[in-house]
Amino acid sequence: MEKSIRYTIRNYVKGDEVALSSIFSECFGPTTPRRLKEWYRTQGVRPEDVFVGIVDGKLVSCVEQVPKQLHHGEGVYLRTAGISGVCTDSDYRCKGIVSNLMKTALEKNRQNGLSNASLYTGLDLSAHRIYERLGFVDVMTWRMFMKYLDYPYLFGIWVRYLNKSLKGSKIAARRLKGWEKSVAIRLKDVGVLSFRFSKKRFERLVKPPKRADIEFSTDLETYVKIRRNVVQWEDAVTSGKLTVTKGVAPDVEMFKRILHWKWDE
Amino acid sequence: MGFKVRAASRQDVEKMLQLYNSFTAHFVGSAARTPKSFTRMLRKKDNINYVALDSQDRIVGYVHATLEKRNRTGEFREIIIDPRHDFEQLANPLIEQVNADFKRKNAAAIIAASLRNPAYEKIFPRLGFMESESMGVFMYAILDSQKLLDELQPVFAARLRGAEGWNGVAQIQCDEYSLFLEKTAAGVQQIVWTNQPVDFKVGLSRTVLVKFIFGVADALECCKKGQLKMEMKASEAKAVKLLERLFPKNQFLTMDYW
């Protein structure tokens, strides 16, 4: 953990949604204040259910709880604190702020008579370790079934999404500074999909570049599973399902970060 | 038996809720719903909702799907079938109907995520969907063991009630807290405390209790691995039976995310 920092914890007040949506955009992808307020309304989240961390008057971290009742067997439904929206501004991470926000939220729930809490997260996220330390237990993972009818279209959407995500991510912008490269992905049964990162923007290329900086070939299923972090890039290379035909190691590493949009160490 | 499929309407809310409740009663982890949840589901213009009707025009299943216009991505959010009917048989025409809608609306991708409906694993790969595990996980924490044990009292009492040929006092201990249940010919009742030796005692950690609640750990296996302590006055065979009755292998399924 890095050096300690002075911060306070308070509940949501009107107007916080602007700062919150900016942190949400950085952590979960593009979000607007309006969308956030709409979500609070539909989920029945009250101001006292949202805990925010403040450093020098700036909102930097958040934990919310959504009231839910879960079936515990034999027709018995028990109230649970549905923890959600756990995030911290990238400039204020590794300082224990969100851990303390979580502790505060869980203790408040316990005092209010709730016996349990539940949440959804990713096994590959650093937050997963925090939750385990706080007593959360893995119950079940998802299984996905996917069918792609027009993957090139989705690829274009993804590139657009990268630009939106980049807007809200200081840490990604810092890491991508000066990295101007093109990528060509040869997908079996789909074709060649390519993009470049130049002048702080991702741009989809209609025609693949003649000399891409990174070039690799694989099948759609492997590519999707790598993107979803279910299959590791290295394992796909070892098993022969993915072949890198061009690209030096640091560039490939950067591409992997873009692919997973994961910028923390 | 032939089934009809038609678009769901606001008049179906109560029936859909009833169906959801009877379907999820067979699983653990599902969230409680209100008519409002269904009204919201049916109100959204981009949602695709169909109901399946039997020969007497009773609703015996429904499908709820969404189409994200910007991403052109269709998603099967839930498929609920009356537990008295065959899931696959009824789900197939509902899925076909939604798939046709997705194609008509020019969907670029179709997704069916499950946490975790075992029927999906049979249906979707057959329809040409690629299958993938996910890094997404549901986590649960016990904040107050005593309170949770007390809240779970009706669950354990119902399970003990079904334990044939056994009467006595059972103790379930988690951390330093215990739930005492006494089973007699008259029924099962909770005892606040006793210093008398109990007839059956299980001691487990919070982690193991969570896994048992949601049916993701096998009680007997945990016992063999020393992850729970079991003491019983009667024979080992009876103890094992009682243990399996208290902590059955339930299927976890949830369709609500937050």
Please give a structural write-up.
The complex is a heterodimer of chains A (265) and B (258). Chain A is built from nine helices and eleven strands. Chain A is an alpha+beta fold and 265 residues long. Chain A has two domains: 8-133, Aminopeptidase, CATH 3.40.630; 151-260, SCP2 sterol-binding domain (Nonspecific Lipid-transfer Protein, Chain A). In chain A, the strands form two sheets. Chain A has a five-stranded mixed sheet with strand order 1-2-3-4-5. In chain A, strands 9-8-7-10-11 form a five-stranded mixed sheet. In chain A, β7 and β8 (191-198) form a beta hairpin. In chain A, α1 crosses α2 (33-43) and α1 (16-28) crosses α5. The longest helix of chain A is centred in the middle third of the chain and has 18 residues, at 151-168. In chain A, 35% of the residues are buried. Chain B contains nine helices and eleven strands. Chain B has a five-stranded mixed sheet, sandwiched between helices. Chains A and B meet through β3, β4, α3, β5 and β6 of A and β5, α4, β6, α5 and α6 of B. β6 of chain A pairs antiparallel with β6 (130-142) of chain B.
CATH class of the largest domain in chain A: Alpha Beta
Helix content of chain B: 25-40%
Number of domains of chain B: 2
Low-confidence stretches of chain A: none
Query: Major beta sheet of chain B, specifics?
Result: 5 strands, mixed
Based on CA atoms alone, the radius of gyration of chain B comes out at 22 Å
Approximate strand percentage of chain A? 25-35%
Query: Structural class per helix/strand content of chain A?
Result: alpha+beta
Output the CATH topology of the largest domain in chain A.
Answer: Aminopeptidase
Helix segment count of chain A?
Answer: 9
How many helix segments of chain B?
9
Element layout with pairings:
The complex is a heterodimer of chains A (265) and B (258).
Chain A: E1 8-11, H1 16-28, H2 33-43, E2 50-55, E3 58-71, E4 77-88, H3 97-111, E5 116-122, H4 127-133, E6 137-148, H5 151-168, H6 170-176, E7 181-188, E8 191-198, E9 201-205, E10 214-219, H7 220-227, H8 233-238, E11 242-246, H9 249-260
Parallel strand pairs in A: 4-5, 7-10
Antiparallel strand pairs in A: 1-2, 2-3, 3-4, 7-8, 8-9, 10-11
Chain B: E1 4-7, H1 13-24, H2 35-43, E2 47-53, E3 59-68, E4 73-81, H3 87-104, E5 109-114, H4 120-126, E6 130-142, H5 145-151, H6 153-161, E7 168-174, E8 177-184, E9 187-191, E10 200-204, H7 206-213, H8 219-224, E11 228-232, H9 236-246
Parallel strand pairs in B: 4-5, 7-10
Antiparallel strand pairs in B: 1-2, 2-3, 3-4, 7-8, 8-9, 10-11
Helix pairs in contact in B: 1-2
